[in-house]
Fold this sequence. Notes:
The chain is α+β, with helices and mostly antiparallel strands. About 20% of the residues lie in helices and about 40% in strands. Strand 1 (about 20-25) and strand 2 (about 30-35) form a beta hairpin.
Amino acid sequence: MDIKEILNQSDRFAANAGCSITEVDQQHAVAVMTVTEQHLNGGHVCQGGALFTLADLAIAALMNSAGQLTFGISNSIMFVSSARQGDTLRAEAAFVADHHKIPAVEVRVTNQEGRTICHVTGMGYRKNASVPR
């Protein structure tokens, strides 16, 4: 089983939020989500936590792609524009630094028109253990 299958099955929070990994290799990862009514905040746009969950799933896929268990230790999100109900969002993660202990990743979340919705950076800590299957 590859990391895409493992995380799509085991990350229940992301799955319940409608997020799934569609691509992953050791250089980049992509997660997708369609904004539904359940993702909307009081302003009738996609809630920031839903956007972060999508980006975080892409980060997890990339940081764990080599099979070594890695947990997030620091993240930052910058909201650029709003996502609305019906938007199909794509979070693409790429390494800034693939350090053996503390990797760093950037994620760009875009909508179906290619418009940037948010930008996320993340750092992780690699454990001396394999990703659980």
